[in-house]
């Protein structure tokens, strides 16, 4: 399960990994905490349709918006329980969520909400119709900027898909006569070129074209050290 504050966050931070996992035969769903209705361009309705199309590009099994107000993400009980319900229903082995430091307060708050929902979903006495469940791992992806990742995934073979999934959010990353210029869609520092440069840099650190960086709060267990060396069992 990949979780974002806004409908394009997962695509920007982990679209390559999501595409790669799906290509490997895994089922992936995305939770958009908000509809991103405060964006300069695009209505909530347009953004919902773009998120659906991006999901098709990636090959998602499901995508759900929790309809928390944009700029209103908190760890209050109501929002916490909405996310706990989705986690218990889908029982993901892995949760992807925004890194805990970011220029956008919604990304920071999303990270906190996911951390708390991950914990509460495993508590028997936190009320819900569904049985308790706690995902094995949380991997944090980067949206605005990045610090040194704990590990980098080679997403070169899926990079075209990532790009198409980002561009499906046309009101955010595209330009039309009616759209307002923002840091997302205009200038040499537009977000798509920044993301591509970052992913290219991460790729260069591990000797491939494009990489996505992730970090974790817990140590990563390596069950098969030979796989790290590229040796098949
Ligand atoms: Zn965002």
From TrEMBL:
GO terms for biological process: bacillithiol biosynthetic process. GO terms for molecular function: deacetylase activity; hydrolase activity, acting on carbon-nitrogen (but not peptide) bonds, in linear amides. It comes from the Bacteria. Signal peptide: none annotated. SUPFAM superfamilies: LmbE-like. PANTHER family: N-ACETYL-ALPHA-D-GLUCOSAMINYL L-MALATE DEACETYLASE 1, N-ACETYLGLUCOSAMINYL-PHOSPHATIDYLINOSITOL DE-N-ACETYLASE-RELATED. This is Bacillithiol biosynthesis deacetylase BshB1. It comes from Desulforamulus putei DSM 12395. The lineage of its organism: Bacteria, Bacillati, Bacillota, Clostridia, Eubacteriales.
